[in-house]
Amino acid sequence: MASQRNLAASLGAWSAQHRKTALFGWIFAVVALTVLGSLVGQKTLTDADYGTGESGRAARVLDDAGITTPAPEMVLVHSDGLTADAPEFKQAVAAAVEAVNGTGLAVNMGDPYETGAVSADKHDALIQFAVKGDPDTAADRVQPVIDALAEAEDAHEGVTFGQYGAATGLKGINDSLGEDFVRAEFTAVPVALGILLVVFGALLAAVLPLILAITACVAAMGLLALSSQLVPVDTMTSSVLLLMGLAVGVDYCLFYIRREREERAAGRDNATALRIAAATSGRSVLISGLTVAVAMAGMFFSGLTVFEGFAIATIEVVLIAVLGSMTVLPAVMAMLGDRVDMGRIPGLRRKSRPRRAGEESGRLLGAVLKSPALFAVLGVAFLLALASPALSMKTEKLGFAQLLPADNVTAQTAKQIEKVFPGAPAPAQIVFRTSDIGSAAATGAIADFRKRALDSGQVTNPIEVTVHKAENIAVINAPLAGDGHGASSVKALEALRDDIIPATLTKDAGSEAPVGGDLAFSTDYNDQLKSSIVPVFAFVMGVSFLLMLLCFRSPVIAITAILLNLLSVAAAYGVMTAVFQKGWGDELVGTTAVGAIESWMPLFVFVVLFGLSMDYHVFVVSRIREAHDQGADNRSAVAHGIRSTAGVVTSAGMIMVAVFAVFGTLSMQDFKQLGVGLAVSVLLDATLVRAVLLPAVMILLGRSNWYLPGWLKWLPHLSHGEEPAPDAGQGTAEPQGATEARSLATR
């Protein structure tokens, strides 16, 4: 059956022939996207965009009415030696109130002696206010309040002022993100460069993948700014884009360059080596990139806007990296020829030499080939053991105090407020809308709500009510019992929604009172995530199966790919649960276990890992299929494919692990969880899964690997290699894989 035309080979050949067009076209595209993106700016999600369920409805009611709730803030006045009725303590509270008011940024000031926000032991008092103006910019304007309180604190010995709220909390996160982002940029790139130097043993060959990956990220950032005008994104999306872009961009170039260098080492001329690399590794990059992009598209089934932004960003950067690897990379390599090895590092030259035909299998591969059943059982057992902690995985939307390091001052204040005034840092927000908010009936309903809520013990003081007469809306902030996010607070939220509000605020027809706030948002968010798991998982696995089936014309190989990837993901879940929920070895990654996994993490990690795992699977199995198609039996083809890709897969895996591990060292808890989860899974996938489990399983399956039912014979026969054009004076040159495959088949 005739093979379908190889798109990757065609693009590579065109780029090699039109080098300047490909190179300058890439530069122009990167610059143009960057400039256009800078002009429009990145549009981020609003509070209403994030919401789902009842809490999302509460946010939309306020958004539709044009009501912006000022960013709430709190000042905790504490003294170990003084009590709240002491004159010195009262003077300190008055000074704090005066300092905040003096900035001109405060509204809705609440004196603790009037609101009753004094702790039971009288050593703490809570001042509540809001930052005047747009809540979305409050974090950028709150610094004068922080400075004024610090100055006032210095004047009162024995009393401390701790500030926390929506503005200071977001400022703390933004400051931490900024520092983390800079650290990641200045760490990930040098680490990746160091690994590439070891891989290639030459400076230019090592720098080339990094340049392409970085320019792909820059172009994708510009494109993301443009697409965000239609689909706004979360502030973390740029970091996710950088993480994915560096990982796949470097890997795709590595696959391409290593194959070209391998063919040159086997005696091919530059043009032939580049043609073979385009037809084989280039094709693998194309399929891998499409598989990753399709896997990322699974996030659209989550029903959450933040995941839509993640999906768009990762799809954009992956496809741009694929395009660069298939166009500008072969153009630059055609320009450079053997000068790609400029800057040789003598001590690394031997390590960078590609494997040649006829080399014996390494000890590990030899052992796997000899006892595949034993290694398959041991490998699966090890991964299942790693995955076992995931059986008790607990997910929740991590609060501010959990996201930042334990030694962060603002996070410590938030924890202290939670301890002394449970529910105060994150009260439930009830949006009460009725036909006439100023009527006696509405006023009575609010009074009934206050009484019933406090009598139930599920809500604590201070309950704050803000009435918007023109919009017929009242916003009620009600601190929940418990710590604001634990089981007792969840119970209080349920009582609020199911009992207290129906009996008071919404007993009259025509009124509504959806409940928002941090806990309500987290609960609704988790419920939506749980309901989206089945469709997302089904879509990603289903489409991945179809792509593998189309690529290799083998249902067995497609099913094997799915099962092996699931093992990698399960192991990553287990490690994340063990470290960040149970605290096993948490000090090794510089954190303290927070008792839960960030709610969006499992779904995101599944989608990303499934896509990235396909990278290695496609690359390795393509070499196995290439050898099989050229005459090798199953065992010989597996040996050839694993041996010829071991070095590049391990190198590519180490680069991804290094990039992800850098994110695991950052201070934000969600970055740590993401980095550790991805790094562990890729490490296992590039080593244990691809070097042990894959060959063991394929050898055990034997000829079944290549079985295609008769009713699927219509599938196109895609080539896994390309016979190069004859070399002048040399007859017809063969790709290295063809020669080795025949050598293996005759042994």
Please mark out the parts with pLDDT under 50 across 5 or more consecutive residues, or reply none: 350-354, 723-747
Quaternary state of this entry equals single chain
- Mean pLDDT equals 85
Please provide the count of β strands. Answer: 10
For the terminal residues, how far apart are their CA atoms? 28 Å
Radius of gyration: 30 Å
Shape: elongated
Strand content: 5-15%
Q: Please work out how many helical segments DSSP would assign.
A: 27
Q: Helicity range of the residues?
A: 55-70%
How would a textbook summarize the main sheet?
4 strands, antiparallel
Across the major sheet, the strand order is 2-3-1-4
Structural class: alpha+beta
Which descriptors apply to this entry?
747 residues, four-stranded antiparallel beta sheet, alpha+beta
Task: Write a concise synopsis of the structure shown.
63% of the residues lie in helices and 7% in strands. The protein has helices at residues 7-17, 19-40, 47-50, 53-64, 87-102, 112-115, 138-141, 143-154, 166-200, 203-227, 237-265, 270-279, 281-297, 305-326, 328-336, 363-370, 372-387, 400-403, 409-420, 440-456, 487-503, 518-552, 555-581, 601-629, 634-664, 669-701, 736-745; strands at 71-78, 106-110, 124-131, 160-165, 395-396, 428-433, 464-468, 473-478, 515-516, 597-598. Strand 7 and strand 8 form a beta hairpin.
What does this molecule look like?
By secondary structure, the protein is an alpha+beta fold. Helices cover 63% and strands 7% of the residues. It has 27 helices and 10 strands. It has helices at residues 7-17, 19-40, 47-50, 53-64, 87-102, 112-115, 138-141, 143-154, 166-200, 203-227, 237-265, 270-279, 281-297, 305-326, 328-336, 363-370, 372-387, 400-403, 409-420, 440-456, 487-503, 518-552, 555-581, 601-629, 634-664, 669-701, 736-745, and strands spanning 71-78, 106-110, 124-131, 160-165, 395-396, 428-433, 464-468, 473-478, 515-516, 597-598. The strands form 3 sheets. The chain has a 4-stranded antiparallel beta sheet with strand order 2-3-1-4, with helices on both faces. The protein has a 4-stranded antiparallel beta sheet with strand order 7-8-6-9, with helices on both faces. Helix 9 (166-200) packs antiparallel against helix 10 (203-227). The longest helix has 35 residues, at 166-200. It is elongated. It starts with 6 loop residues before the first helix and ends with a helix. Residues 350-354 and 723-747 have low confidence and may be disordered.
